[in-house]
Amino acid sequence: MRIWTGGALIVLAGPALAQGTADQAAVGEVLGRYRAAIERLDAAGTEALFTADSQIFENGGIEGSYATYLAHHLGPELGHFRAFRFSNVAVEVRFEGPVALATESYDFRIERAEGEPIERRGVTTSVLRKTGDAWRIVSMHGSSRPPRPPRPASTP
């Protein structure tokens, strides 16, 4: 089953179907709100999307809690960008008991205040836990690489 939410395609698989579409939509909304904040270049309020004991991992590095990542990495970094745009976003979510496991794949383009734009293909895996009636990110791991050029068409 596929659901469009927050500008992303969410694919429901296996046990996710039993969990229900309300939780699916809620998880998709949390991830979509985070992407939207990055695109606005304004992470204000995104702390509410993460648990206090969250852990962030990025491109082979341990960034610490989201509060640390925001203060020392993401927040300052956003100040060096003129624009950040996601495209071709696909989100797959499955539930393992009370935990949601989400995998996002996407393309992104960063226009820096100085220098050439950066274009990448990225993937993020997030673990979310329901706290009260809201889903929050416990763990997030993202990586990216330059997009590969299209393969030439094969000839018969």
Element layout with pairings:
Blueprint: E1 2-5, E2 8-12, H1 16-19, H2 21-40, E3 50-58, E4 61-64, H3 66-78, E5 81-96, E6 99-112, E7 118-131, E8 134-145
Parallel strand pairs: 2-5, 3-8
Antiparallel strand pairs: 1-2, 3-4, 5-6, 6-7, 7-8
Structure description:
This protein has 156 residues and is α+β, with helices and mostly antiparallel strands. The protein has a single domain (2-42, 49-145), classed as Roll (Nuclear Transport Factor 2, Chain: A), CATH 3.10.450. The chain has helices at residues 16-19, 21-40, 66-78, and strands spanning 2-5, 8-12, 50-58, 61-64, 81-96, 99-112, 118-131, 134-145. An eight-stranded mixed beta sheet has the order 1-2-5-6-7-8-3-4. A hairpin with a 2-residue loop joins β7 and β8. The chain is globular. The relative contact order is 0.18.
